[in-house]
Specification:
By secondary structure, the protein is an alpha+beta fold. It has 2 domains: 35 residues, no CATH class; 76 residues, Uncharacterised protein family Atu4866 (Lipocalin), CATH 2.40.128.290. It is 31% helix and 41% strand. It contains 3 helices and 8 strands, in the order H-H-H-E-E-E-E-E-E-E-E. An 8-stranded antiparallel β-barrel has the order 1-2-3-4-5-6-7-8. Helix 1 packs across helix 2. It is globular. The N and C termini lie far apart (57 Å).
Length: 123
């Protein structure tokens, strides 16, 4: 029973801390909102990057969906990984549904991700 009370106290403290940080530091709240919104710093949206991105040999395929989700195919495995993505400027952060995180950058119409080079492919 004491553990339950301690957990409730810790949760209440955490929520109070977030509220205080947001109230006294607008940047804290803004950073939190930006992570959950598809809008980027350069006026682009995730929709500008949505679509199919493929390695030169076609083995790795990232389908960036307009709703902030992605599906990664590898070889014959069409749904090898699935998860969420966030775009900030030309940077992309991925978090798959198992909790694994990765990132990449768009430069000159090419996606550089985890040592891979992916090119946009029109469907």
């Amino acid at each position: 029973m004491a553990r339950y009370g301690l957990l409730l106290s810790a949760a209440a403290f955490s929520m109070s801390l977030v509220a205080a940080l947001t109230a006294f530091s607008p940047a804290f709240g803004e950073a939190t909102r930006k992570k959950n919104e598809p809008e980027t710093d350069v006026g682009m949206t995730a929709n500008n990057f949505a679509g199919l991105w493929v390695t030169g040999d076609g083995h790795i395929r990232h389908e960036l969906l307009a709703n902030g989700r992605y599906v990664e195919a590898r070889g014959t495995r069409e749904n090898a990984y699935e998860g969420q993505y966030w775009i900030d400027g030309n940077h992309i952060d991925y978090k798959d549904d198992t909790g694994f995180a990765a990132d990449g950058d768009f430069k000159d119409g090419i996606l550089y991700h985890a040592g891979m080079v992916l090119y946009r492919r029109d469907n």
